[in-house]
Q: What sequence folds into this?
C-alpha cells in the first residue's frame, strides 16, 4: 500500500469535515466526487446552489454540503466574529460583510474558526499568499510555534532512500530566506509533521552545498548556526548538519563524508537553506523521479489549513484533503 493510500485509510477511520472554497474551479468538483466516493472526509463547498450545480455538471457530489454565504444563517455570526478579530485594524461590519460574501477563502476560514468545519484546503486557483492571509489574520499561529512554514510530502517510487522513498521537504512553499532561528523552528515543526503523517522516526538533515565544513561561505554559516540552535532546542531529535544532499540520504556517501554523524546517509526530513532551493528541489524530484508531491502542507497554523499548487490535479487535491483530515485528527 502506497503512502497516500495509508493516509486515506487513516482519514476514513475518523472522518473529518473539510471546506473546499474554490467552487469556481472544475478540479474542486472532480476531487469532491472522489473524496465522497472513497469516504475520505465530509466536504463543504462554499458557493451558491446555482454555481455548484453548474460547475459540477456530470459529477456525483450529492453527499457534499453546500453553504451559500448570501443565504446561510451562520453568516451574521461570522461577520460579528470577523469584526471582533480585526477591529484593531479598523474592520467595520460593512467591510466584514463585503469580504465574507465575496471572498470564499475568508468564509471557509471562518467556518474553521467557528468550529463548523475541521480544516480547509485551497490554492488550486489562488496564490499561497492569498490562501494563507486569512488563516494568519483569523486563526493565528499554533501555541508554542515560532512561525508558520510549509513542506511537501514526497513519495518517490522505487526509492531505497528516506522512509521507503517518503520524505518531507521544507520549507518548500512559504518562507523565502529564513534566518538560523527560523530554520531551526522549521526543522522542529517538520520533524513533528513527519512523525504524524509517516508514523516513523524523523531523521532531520540541514542541507547546504557544504558537508561538515567542506566549504566556507556565509550561506554555510547560516545552516551551521541553525543546526546548533535546533540541536539545543530539540535534544531528543535525530538532527544534524550541515550536509550536501548526497551525504544526507545516501549511506555510503554519508559514511564517507560524515562518519560520526547519526543522521548522515539516513535522513528522511530535508531542511533546505532557503525557498529557492526547497522549491527547485521538490519540483526536480517530482518531475524527474516521477514522485508524488503533496503540498505545500502548512505547519504552525492554529487549525489545519493547507495550500495547493496552482498546477495541481484533482487527484492532488484528494491527497491533500486526506493529509489535512489526518492533521485534524491530531488536533
A:
Amino acid at each position: 500500500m502506497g503512502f497516500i493510500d495509508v493516509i486515506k485509510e487513516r482519514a476514513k477511520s475518523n472522518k473529518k469535515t473539510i471546506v473546499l472554497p474554490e467552487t469556481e474551479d472544475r478540479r474542486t468538483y472532480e476531487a469532491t466526487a472522489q473524496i465522497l466516493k472513497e469516504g475520505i472526509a465530509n466536504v463543504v463547498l462554499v458557493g451558491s446552489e446555482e454555481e455548484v450545480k453548474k460547475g459540477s455538471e456530470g459529477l456525483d457530489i450529492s453527499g457534499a454540503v453546500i453553504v451559500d454565504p448570501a443565504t446561510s444563517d451562520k453568516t451574521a455570526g461570522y461577520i460579528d466574529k470577523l469584526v471582533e478579530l480585526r477591529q484593531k485594524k479598523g474592520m467595520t461590519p460593512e467591510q466584514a460583510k463585503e469580504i465574507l460574501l465575496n471572498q470564499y477563502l475568508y468564509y471557509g476560514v471562518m467556518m474553521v474558526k467557528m468550529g463548523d468545519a475541521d480544516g480547509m484546503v485551497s490554492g488550486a486557483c489562488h496564490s499561497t499568499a492569498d490562501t494563507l492571509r486569512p488563516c494568519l489574520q483569523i486563526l493565528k499561529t499554533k501555541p508554542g510555534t515560532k512561525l508558520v512554514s510549509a513542506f511537501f510530502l514526497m513519495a518517490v517510487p522505487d526509492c531505497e532512500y528516506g522512509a521507503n522513498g517518503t520524505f518531507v521537504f521544507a520549507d518548500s512553499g512559504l518562507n523565502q530566506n529564513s534566518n538560523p532561528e527560523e530554520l531551526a523552528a522549521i526543522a522542529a515543526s517538520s520533524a513533528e509533521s513527519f512523525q504524524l503523517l509517516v508514523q516513523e522516526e524523523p531523521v532531520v538533515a540541514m542541507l547546504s552545498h557544504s558537508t561538515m565544513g567542506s566549504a566556507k561561505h556565509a550561506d554555510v554559516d547560516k545552516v551551521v548556526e541553525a543546526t546548533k540552535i535546533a540541536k539545543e532546542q530539540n535534544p531528543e531529535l535525530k538532527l544534524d548538519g550541515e550536509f550536501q544532499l548526497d551525504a544526507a540520504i545516501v549511506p555510503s556517501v554519508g559514511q564517507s563524508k560524515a562518519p560520526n554523524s547519526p543522521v548522515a546517509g539516513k535522513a528522511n526530513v530535508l531542511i533546505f537553506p532557503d525557498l529557492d532551493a526547497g522549491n527547485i528541489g521538490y519540483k526536480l524530484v517530482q518531475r524527474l523521479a516521477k514522485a508524488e508531491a503533496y503540498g505545500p502542507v502548512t505547519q504552525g497554523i492554529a487549525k489545519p489549513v493547507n495550500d495547493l499548487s496552482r498546477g495541481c490535479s484533482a487527484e492532488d487535491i484528494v491527497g491533500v484533503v486526506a493529509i489535512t483530515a489526518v492533521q485534524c485528527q491530531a488536533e
About this structure: Residues 180-198 form the longest helix (19 residues).
